[in-house]
Amino acid sequence: MANVVRDPRSAPDVIIPDLATNTLHPFKKEDVALVYGMLWKQRYFTKVGDDYFPESAQWDVKNKVWREYFVKNGTDWWSTLYPPDNMQRPTGPLCDGCHSVGYDVQKKTVVEWNVGCERCHGPSAAHVANPTRVNVQNPGRMDAVHSNDTCIQCHSQGRPLTNPIAGRQYDWPVGYQVGMELSDYWRLEENKLGEQSFTHFADGTGHKNRMQGNDFVRSVMYKHDITCASCHDVHGTANPGQTRLLGNALCLTCHGAGEKNGPRATTLEAHSLHKAGSTGSECIACHMPRIEVTIADVNVRSHTFEFITPQMTDTYKIPNPCTSCHKDKDNAWATNVLKHAPGRSPWRL
To answer: What pLDDT score does 2 carry?
Structure first.
């Protein structure tokens, strides 16, 4: 996160593709003031005056192709409040608050680009001058709600409680700093059960990118005071998603076979209905399916930790992990397998 926004002048190799291959909406390297992203997608910001604006082409890192970048009506709450032109949609109110430290809505300046230390630890000049535990915010020592809000401030879809601000519509929690009450500044996008929205499937699970916070607050994990930091180390690990442990080892620290936290089965194989070591025996395969779109066919994982049944697919049109993996099978097949699995309640399918 500390390198998600880069200046190509100081980091000339940061631009992944050959810009000459961009035939959608061509632009030149000298037009690029800032580059955003390296993992899923890469976007390019040009500077006009004291504002930055996104170019209309973005690079799909996984598929290695150029794709359109434009937020269409109905795909975000603010789309109709800005002109249908990327060069009239500044990144300051729509992006930069989460991609920087200390964005000033009046001056349109930042203290630091990227998710720097103060993004999660608050203003820290006093701590740098005299390091003590009492003059810096530390999410690791906060209660679960405030610790999680440190991450939810940016890893969620919502809107400020006060808008417009300084004459512009903002899409991040303006004024919030770590340790404050996020709910005083930010309202998570809501959904009506049974209706699909631009953020949620009809059952309430997110389908849009950056929905981890929206998902997590409705999870059993959140209700039991699990925090984002219980699973992730934002200071960095070599594991995907910066998780503290790799694969099932992370989940099984709390959810070993036969333990009170579940699963109730005596072995992992009996719970997952798949052989040990197989893709289907991975906890995240069933409890964190990739159903939330980041770009094109590249999806990120759900964070409700709920198992989506085939019947939920029939009712709410939300993808389930069974037929998402077993693409040659249908929901009736998956329902029948689950219904006749040992120890499974037919009333919970």
So the answer is: 78
Q: What is the chain's percent helix, strand, coil content, to nearest 5?
A: 30, 15, 55
Question: Tokens representing 298?
Answer: 């590249």
For range 112-122, the mean pLDDT: 94
Name the phi and psi angles at 232, rounded to 5: -115, 145
Which residue has 């880069």 as its token pair? 6
What's the half-sphere exposure (Cβ side, CA atoms, 13 Å) at 174? 21
Beta bridge partners of 109: 104
252-287 pLDDT, tens digit each: 999 988 788 888 888 889 999 999 999 999 999 999
Query: Peptide bond before 263: cis, by omega within 30 degrees of 0?
Result: yes
Query: What is the Cα–Cα distance from 54 to 149, expressed in whole angstroms?
Result: 28
132's CB contacts (< 8 A; 6+ apart) are: none
**pTM, to two decimals:** 0.93
Q: Are 116 and 99 in contact (CB under 8 A)?
A: no
d(CA 150, CA 121): 9
Average pLDDT over residues 212-239: 96
> What pLDDT is recorded for position 343?
79
Q: In the block, which residue shows the tokens 């980041």?
A: 294
For 190, how many CA atoms within 13 A lie in the half-sphere containing its CB? Answer: 3
Q: For 120-162, how does the pLDDT look when each residue is reduced to its tens digit (9 = 90+)?
A: 999 999 999 999 999 999 999 999 999 999 999 999 999 999 9
Contact predicate 252/292, CB 8 Å: no
Say how far apart CA 170 and CA 339 lie, in whole Å.
Answer: 48
Burial of 33 (0-12, 13-18, 19+ CB in 10 A): middle
- Within 87-169, strands assigned E span 100-101, 112-113, 158-160
In sequence order, the 6+-apart residues with CB closer than 8 A to the CB of 170 are 93, 94, 97, 105, 159, 160, 163, 164
